[in-house]
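Q: For a teaching session next week I want to show students how multiple molecules come together into a single three-dimensional assembly. I've collected the sequence lines for a complex. Could you give me the predicted structure tokens for the whole thing so I can convert them for display?
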Amino acid sequence: MRPRPLDLALVLLLLIATAAFVWPLYPAFIDGPEPFVLGLPAAFAWHVAWVVGVFLLLCAYHTLARHGEERE
Amino acid sequence: MSPQTIVIGISVAYLTACLAIGASAGRKTSDSAAGFVAGDRALGALVMYFITGATIFSAFAFLGMPGWAYSRGVAGLYILGFGTVGFVPFYFLGPRAARVGRRFGFVTQAEMVAHRFRTPAVAGLMAVISAIAFVPYLAIQMKGAGYVLTEMTSGAVSERVGAALVYTVVLAYVMKSGVLGVGWTNTFQGIFMMVLAWSMGLWLPHVLYGGVGEMFESIAEQRPELLVPPGLDAAGEPWAWGPYSSNILVSIVGFSMWPHLFMKAFSAKDENTLRRTVVLYPTFQLFLVPILILGFAAVLFASAPDKPDQVLPHLLMNAGLSPWIVGLFCAGALAASMSSGDAILHATASILVRDGWVTAARRPLSAQAERTAIRALLVFVLLAAYGLAFVYSDSLVTLLLFAYGPITQFAPGVVATLVWRRASGAAVLAGMLAGIIVTLVLSQRPDLCPWGLHAGLFGLALNVALLVMISLVRPGGTAEDDDFLATAQGR
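A: Of course. Below is the structure for the complete assembly, covering every listed component.
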């Protein structure tokens, strides 16, 4: 069974998301309390943004994967 | 009415509501293990969402996590990181497990692994490790419930009485309704906690600081070190990136492997329900945001709690709030404790019977006898946890940390079970055992871990290496394995 491009894209984006929660991506972008976003300090806002981002990524993957299965 | 009476009244009303919902939930299931443990594989999207989400919303979420935010700043955010990514592997593993579970009648992950490799010893090992992890985990939930009741009634209810009261209710509905009792109470408790967490998380900073933004600006001025990633370590020094990152990575790998979570693959009504549960899971993380905000709200508060874990009750009791609000919050904290405690209790008893007795010791039971045995063990496990909570209180966290690493070591074997044809039983068992031993030894000797990395990471590396090498030298892959994997893939 060959992996589909859609699956590879999901794995790649999830690896990026994981790196965003740990070293090296997290410290590369956030190094202090500033800037504040919607009242939240930078690290907090960064986490919330990635949680929302992963949620949207999973929604997109789920929709596209089901669409692909139906066409098959 | 005195403030204590109001808080106790709200808590008792809440417990009564949980009992009513939990006890009436299991009426329709069959009188078998599949009914009691897996809800006859018929759970819908709503219950699956909350039953899996409740594993995040434990007593730790209401007590430990705000304590982290308060004492270690943004280090408390780590829970958002691992919880968001950690459940994603389940999108692919869950439906596979569900298919083989339906065909071969599994209700736990260990019996699935043991069946695929015809190695009952794996189930025994996984049952023992799970029980060692779960009993202290349950004891911590109980202590949390007792503690909250004592604090919020200003000592009118003692910790022991509080914990006994709350967990008698849990025992009653889990015993009566099995997984459905867990599922429907978790749904009720989850909605209650979400509403409460968000309203308190936004309202309290407003009362104390004039708003969330104002609160964080004051913290940035007076305690900026709390807001610099990755936060502070347990000693209050800036945490190094090695331990911080490896903690999150090990938690991500281990997350889906927690037996009370993985078992729910066998409970879902269909594959799409399982997949949707995983897709929606990150939204559960967002409900932790207000609780973290509440932890930060205590940073510049006039008085300090004795221990960071007490920060939230301390804040609520000393902020001059109405006893009605304190009572509601008390019920929310009980909800957090109960909604994790019930699933852990249910899983431990089910695992000991299914994996320990039936699979590893090869003593098949009739459906009726199995259900009776699980019910008897519910009482035993609960009493053991209660004894542990109030007798060996000092070593509880150590015991839990001791077991937390080994659970992660289930991951390579479980993944191999569902995807890799060549994997063999000997390889899975050797890898898991070696991984568990290395993790336990290194967690006792952190000085041996380079860059302060998490011990579980080294255990995982050895686990995977042994699994792959032994499987390549002496591969499995019989016709039975082909049949098993074909079922897993839905062919």
